[in-house]
Amino acid sequence: MQKKSRILIFSFFGVFIVIFFAFCAVVWYVDPFRLFHQPFMCKNQVYDDMRYNARWFIKSGDYDSIILGTSMLANTSAKEAAELLGGKFINISIWGSSLEQRAILMNYALKKKPIKKIIISLDRGGLVPVDVKLDNKVSANRFDFLYTDNSNIFKVYMNIKFISKIFSFKCEEDANMDMPSSWMLKWGDRTEQRFGGLENWIKTYKDKDMQTTMQMLSAAAIMALNGYQPQNLLNAYYLEKYQKDLDNNVLKFAKDYPNTEFVLVIPPYFMAYNSILRFSADGYSALQKELIRYVLNQKLPNIKLYAYDYLDFTYDVGNYMDLGHYSPEINSKILQMLSKKEGELNLSNLDKWWQKYDEAAMNYNFLNFYHDFATGVEAQKAIDAKEM
Questions:
Q1: DSSP character string of 266-314
Q2: What's the pLDDT tens digit per position in 86-115?
Q3: Alpha carbon of 93 to those of 102, 229, 254: distances in Å?
Q4: Does residue 326 register a pLDDT over 80?
Q5: How far is residue 363 from each of residues 220, 310, 355, 367, measured CA to CA in Å?
Q6: Cα–chain-centroid distance for residue 82?
Q7: Pairing relation of β-strands 303-307 and 344-345?
Q8: What are residue 120's phi and psi, to 5 degrees?
Q9: Helix, coil or strand: residue 224
Q10: H or E segment at 264?
Q11: Burial class of 113 by CB neighbour count within 10 A (0 to 12, 13 to 18, 19+)
Q12: How far apart are CA 94 and CA 51, in angstroms?
């Protein structure tokens, strides 16, 4: 009886060990994040979360400059950046990322090789973050071990989401290594059909992003119709909080790496978004201005800061698929303006820029835009109901 029990126990552990090593072998073979080697299958595929992919690009890429933004710079061509700005670029922008998350990649890259230029987007959620964890799905400690000397990088694959992807043995379309995290290329028709004008927003009102857009406009409209008047007073607590965020995740790198140029870009959001932020997020505009002043007051010669908030194209809804995300043509326009040093902010022109931005945001009639959008959506719902 005891002999049979021992045989069963040894058999169980034997089968377990075989299964475990078979599992590890498959994971190693597929290796979608290229942690151990260039994958033997799906060779030109890039998983859409650059938090995990960037390690390979940083270690293996032929570059001396980096584009490290959020989704606002994800559609920026590394090749075009090199042609206009010089150098060899890679684009490792991370959708929905905080400055803290991007600092992990920046620190890793700067330690690997000399970097000439890093383009960083200072988004509405990056320059003035929301006072909650920006990305609850992927906090920094979920992937930061990939960018340390920790040898236990295999544990990144101990995630049911990644395991199911590996064992599906299916390859997606080849990635465009020029802009591997491009949402325009990733989502295709879902994004393309929302560009071109308000009528296309209306036709795609069922899309979750359009529903979020409607909710934001509706909330601001309710406040305005109830007579709310923003004071735009500076909040000292948030000012100190976000100054530390800039210190830890941007400024310290500029100080530690004086030969690297840090190009900070405030993306050009749709003017309706600027308007509802100025109106409903009380104190936001004043806080943004003082944080920019804080960066400029460091007087670091290797930091350049650019803003494109109230140019003509920001009034044209046709350039946007929602309140914030613009077409790839705008990414090209940004590179062209950077090459000519257009839109650069300094201590001498900051107040003038802020006054124009503030006036543009306050003068834009987002209520009219909301009315046209909401009316159009109701009409489209009626058409859809008849066709059912």
A1: E----HHHHHHHHHHSTTHHHHHHHHHHHHHHT--TTEEEEE-SSSGGG
A2: 999 999 999 888 899 999 999 999 999 999
A3: 8, 37, 19
A4: yes
A5: 15, 11, 12, 11
A6: 21
A7: antiparallel
A8: -125, 130
A9: helix
A10: strand 261-266
A11: exposed
A12: 6
Residues forming beta bridges with residue 305, ordered by sequence position: 264, 345
Both structure tokens of 123: 């988004």
CA torsion 215-219-224-226 (nearest 10°) is 130
Band (pLDDT 50/70/90 cuts) for residue 131 is: very low
- What per-residue confidence (pLDDT) applies to 58? 93
Take residue 124 and report the two structure tokens written for it: 């509405």
Q: What is the CA radius of gyration of the chain?
A: 24
CA-CA distance, 144 to 121, in Å (whole number)?
Answer: 20
**Residue (of 82, 76, 131, 73) closest to 102 by Cα position:** 73
The model's pLDDT over 180-235, given as tens digits with 9 standing for 90+, comes to 989 888 777 788 899 999 999 999 999 998 999 999 999 889 888 888 877 777 78
pTM, two decimals, is 0.89
Query: In Å, what is the CA distance from 178 to each residue of 40, 62, 96, 102?
Result: 21, 12, 20, 19
* Cβ contact 242:287 at 8 Å: yes
Listed residue (52, 65, 43, 34) closest to 95, CA to CA:
52
Residue 157: pLDDT over 90: no
373 vs 282, higher pLDDT: 373
Residue 150's nearest CA partner among 104, 119, 110 is 104
Taking CA atoms, 181 is separated from 12, 28, 51, 57, 91, in Å, by 44, 23, 10, 12, 8
Between 366-387 and 208-225, two packed helices, what is the crossing angle to 10 degrees?
130
Distance CA 14, CA 326 (A): 56
In the beta sheet, which residues pair with residue 345?
305
| Amino acid present at 44 | N
Cα 250 to the center of its chain, rounded Å: 16
Helix (H, G, I), strand (E, B) or coil at 183: helix
Decide if 320 contacts 271 (C-beta within 8 A).
Answer: no
Asked if the model's pLDDT at residue 244 lies above 70, the reply is: yes
Question: Six-digit token pair at 132?
Answer: 């909650």
Phi-psi region of 351 (alpha: psi -120 to 50; beta: other; left: phi over 0): alpha
